[in-house]
């Protein structure tokens, strides 16, 4: 009976290859990924072979549907029936076996916790002055760390230097403090998170589909890695939450943890049962770490790498900054309105905002996102049974030749309108769409803009003499990153022919 059940395809399920009992399509898919170089390429090849935008697979014991193309993806993202998250071993392990937090939950728990996080970020000055100050403080620190290398014309690797800055912004918003650069605990966390980003794929790797394999190969399946990461994060978060409990003052909100403790205590004093608990708080903080840090720093890394590869665009961006930011200060969020508008032809103004949007789309459009069907439903006319995992293939939209014509070309001006302002395009789905869209998008965009413009204002980025230019091919994984590359930073004040930029700028008013 089990065999028949494992082999049978639900009625009117999306088309796809035949599957084996127990393993489903795992082996074929793995073979195809190895042949084509990435999971999204394998999905796209299977979609073509079966003439469908909605591919039906079985991975281990899970029914899995891959939605590709704008119509199918938007149908998933905007349907309440697909507001669920997959509930497999990998997802449970991500939240230390609890299925708590925001990212991996659904139903009433998810909606109450998400509402809290959105409301809190808004109150805390999300997108306003406080957030900007935190980002600028980190930027200032990063620039001073890079200054000596620039003065001595020593090539540096930006990859390891960006994540601590982004993580510190998140940590300051969440826990009210920052880690000093080089802090060994921060470094250990970043190393583990970076390994995690590379070790898994959209479906959670083998741990998502054949979790029992962890008993045979705990190291190779990534199980030990996740356990180590969980232990480090849990220790740090529980310690921080305990310190907040000890210094708690009613009515004072220093950060997200304080705001959360207000909710916990308010519900406790009313004697009502609630989803606001200390355990849940650990998982909400964990979500901020895992969903926000490497996604943002890798994107920034891609954007800067593209500047190394496109010196002409870099110098247009620099002119944009030079013409719009007064001497003696770092770029600010209000400058965003001015950028790009000052030059003549649209191709002459690939403004800084356009460049970050461009790098997001051209290279970084593979943020894994998985949903689950909360009830029996349909997708593109096919039946989708309750519990089916739905993987969103945004790559297929962002690399659609029919729409973008030359999706692999880095043309930031394509994201700008005739006035040089960012042109919203409904086909840019980097941050998702609908009720579950990314709740950190404003923070991510602000970080990208300020770090990007701040770096270009201070340094010219180029390929170190005698070294090969960076590769545009990303390292595959859960959160894709550029392959390691080195860059020569030349202080703008020392660039022949460049307009001069003042040094020793003070980013914070009064600092
Ligand atoms: C460039 C950076 C980022 C990208 C590309 C990105 C992208 C995404 C995507 C595609 C989703 C899935 C949406 C869906 O399922 O439909 C998501 C969810 C999420 N993101 Fe981001 N994100 C970024 C930065 C951040 C930051 C900085 C934070 C932290 C504040 C954050 C917090 C979250 C959370 C908590 C969710 C889960 C939302 C939910 O399930 O309701 N993200 N993000």
TrEMBL record:
Native source organism of the sequence: Thrips palmi
Pfam families listed in its UniProt record: p450 (PF00067)
Keywords: Endoplasmic reticulum, Heme, Iron, Membrane, Metal-binding, Microsome, Monooxygenase, Oxidoreductase, Signal
Localization per Swiss-Prot or TrEMBL: Endoplasmic reticulum membrane; Microsome membrane
Family to which the UniProt record says this protein belongs: Belongs to the cytochrome P450 family.
Sample GO molecular function, one term: heme binding
Functional note: May be involved in the metabolism of insect hormones and in the breakdown of synthetic insecticides.
Protein name: Probable cytochrome P450 305a1
GO biological process: organic acid metabolic process; xenobiotic metabolic process
InterPro entries: Cyt_P450 (IPR001128), Cyt_P450_CS (IPR017972), Cyt_P450_E_grp-I (IPR002401), Cyt_P450_sf (IPR036396), Cytochrome_P450_fam2 (IPR050182)
Domain of life: Eukaryota
GO cellular component: endoplasmic reticulum membrane
Residue numbers binding heme: 438
This protein's record includes keyword Iron: yes
Listed cofactors: heme
Membrane topology annotation: Peripheral membrane protein
């Amino acid at each position: 009976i089990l065999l028949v059940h494992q082999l049978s395809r639900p009625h009117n399920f999306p088309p796809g290859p035949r599957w084996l009992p127990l393993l489903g399509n795992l082996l074929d898919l793995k073979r195809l990924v190895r042949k084509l170089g990435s999971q999204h390429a394998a999905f796209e090849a299977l979609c073509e072979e079966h003439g469908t935008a909605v591919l039906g697979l079985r991975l281990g014991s899970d029914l899995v549907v891959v939605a590709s193309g704008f119509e199918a993806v938007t149908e998933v993202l905007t349907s309440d029936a697909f507001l669920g998250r997959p509930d497999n071993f990998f997802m449970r392990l991500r939240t230390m076996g609890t299925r708590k937090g925001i990212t991996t939950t659904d139903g009433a728990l998810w909606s109450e916790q998400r509402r809290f996080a959105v409301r809190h970020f808004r109150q805390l000055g999300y997108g306003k002055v406080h957030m900007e100050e935190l980002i600028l403080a980190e930027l200032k620190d990063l620039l001073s760390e890079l200054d000596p290398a620039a003065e001595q014309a020593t090539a540096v690797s930006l990859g390891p230097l960006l994540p601590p800055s982004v993580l510190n912004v998140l940590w300051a918003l969440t826990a009210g403090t920052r880690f000093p650069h080089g802090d060994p605990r921060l470094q250990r966390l970043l190393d583990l998170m970076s390994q995690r980003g590379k070790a898994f794929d959209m479906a959670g790797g083998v741990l998502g589909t054949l979790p029992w394999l962890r008993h045979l190969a705990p190291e190779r399946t990534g199980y030990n890695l996740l356990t180590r990461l969980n232990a480090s994060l849990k220790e740090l978060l529980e310690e921080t939450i305990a310190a907040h409990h000890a210094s708690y003052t009613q009515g004072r909100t220093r950060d997200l943890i304080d705001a959360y403790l207000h909710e916990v205590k308010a519900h406790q004093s009313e004697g009502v049962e609630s989803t606001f608990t200390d355990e849940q708080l650990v998982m909400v903080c964990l979500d901020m770490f895992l969903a926000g840090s490497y996604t943002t720093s890798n994107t920034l890394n891609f954007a800067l790498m593209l500047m190394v590869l496109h010196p002409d665009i870099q110098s247009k961006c620099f002119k944009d900054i030079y013409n719009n930011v007064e001497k003696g200060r770092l770029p600010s969020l209000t400058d965003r309105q001015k950028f790009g508008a000052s030059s003549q032809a649209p191709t002459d103004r690939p403004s800084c905002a356009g460049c970050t949007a461009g790098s997001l789309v051209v290279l970084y459009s593979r943020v894994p996102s998985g949903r689950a069907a909360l009830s029996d439903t349909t997708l593109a006319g096919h039946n989708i049974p309750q519990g089916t995992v739905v993987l969103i293939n945004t790559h297929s939209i962002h690399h659609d030749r029919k729409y973008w014509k030359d999706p692999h070309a880095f043309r930031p001006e394509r994201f700008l309108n005739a006035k040089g302002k960012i042109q919203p395009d409904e086909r840019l789905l980097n941050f998702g769409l609908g009720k579950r869209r990314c709740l950190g998008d404003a923070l991510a965009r602000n970080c990208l803009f300020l770090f990007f413009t701040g770096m270009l204002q201070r340094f010219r980025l180029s390929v170190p003499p005698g070294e090969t230019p960076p590769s545009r091919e990303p390292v595959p994984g859960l959160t894709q990153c550029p392959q390691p590359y080195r860059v020569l930073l030349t202080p703008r004040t020392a660039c022949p022919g460049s307009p001069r930029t003042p040094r020793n700028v003070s980013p914070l008013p009064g600092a």
